[in-house]
DNA sequence: ACCTGAACACCGTTCAAGT
DNA sequence: ACCTGAACACCGTTCAAGT
């Protein structure tokens, strides 16, 4: 009855299934989403998996490799618009529109992880965040080629499209995840003689900022995204016909 | 700065002058520039200053505060175009051109630090990287206002300008600082049976990537920057007259 | 085959103690 | 006033040992 486990591929009916690289990565993503990147330590991740930290090293080549795997897992959720989401009639503009919104979904679903996607060095220098996987870039280039772009036009579009996504989505995800990294302490009132830089930074000397403060605070990130995307498409259209 | 001022102004003729917050921050920037952000530990920074790590806590509220100070110091090197660099004749286009290139200078001079500038949460939520200091934003808004922008146009320009800078310069700085973080080990030849993911990632299954590899590898970051900047100016011009 | 105990080097941070 | 020694909690990582 307590027989040593045979070849059985997945026969484990306990609540805590065996460790897997996939399960480790998924839990890591969850930990980042809920507590921030700084909270992702090997030991805490182990604890979430009911395992000692050292066990993770069977499936992951250290913390750096784990972070790499997290980024890859998230980027792999990007869906390249195919026959499912797109009518054959729709051109490259619809293709880029749908793709842009899926990358935006990724950024807003994982605001704490997006800086990793944005700043960790990709496997190859010509992979540009956030479209930083071979699969995604291949599909991106093919998608544009099959919709009328030639090679150099597709490459140029890859460059401008990634720059656009990175700038907008990094700012938007920063806005989203605002201040969740430093786990919300009840604010300390002491040390009133210190500069106290963060509480209410002194706007006194900045009349224009003071006047425009409420305008600056308004969140127009979605409008900005749509408008900038629209302008990018116009710009690409110009370059196509020249 | 209500710093604990010693009575003696600067009477220290030794090669190692006394500690200063400014000196600590400057050395930290240097450490990041030369060895990457991961190398910036309190202990190593102390060693560079011929001091024990604990001494730093007199001038800096821990590592997070130090990183904040590093970012602020770098952002403070941004020069807002004034009567010196700009003729009164020049309009807002010249103003933004000159400013954009100065921020680009910052990114290329400190490629390892730029991700910090890009991703650390600013002091106020309406401060957007990389123009994330009160001084810079005030001067930016005033600069545009004095050149014909009204309030909401200036605020809109702040949003699109920062998005543009962030996307382009983060990619360009990543390109610049490529792989200097993991201190250049002589590559290990062993373990040829493992996936060996990083050495030469397998392009076999990606025909388009294989074909366009050389095109993708070309560095056109400067052209991209100039072109995208030009298009942003055109776009802003349109919004001005509508 | 898979997980762990023990150990090591390094880290951030505090505080009483030195000068 | 300024710096340090000693200590603590936590971290990444290795490896022999357990089952």
Automatic annotation (TrEMBL), chains A, B:
Residues 41-60 bind DNA. InterPro entries: Homeodomain-like_sf, HTH-type_TetR-like_transc_reg, HTH_TetR, Repressor_TetR_C, Tet_transcr_reg_TetR-rel_C_sf. Residues 18-78 form the HTH tetR-type domain. Keywords: DNA-binding, Transcription, Transcription regulation. This is Transcriptional regulator, TetR family protein. It comes from Terrabacter tumescens.
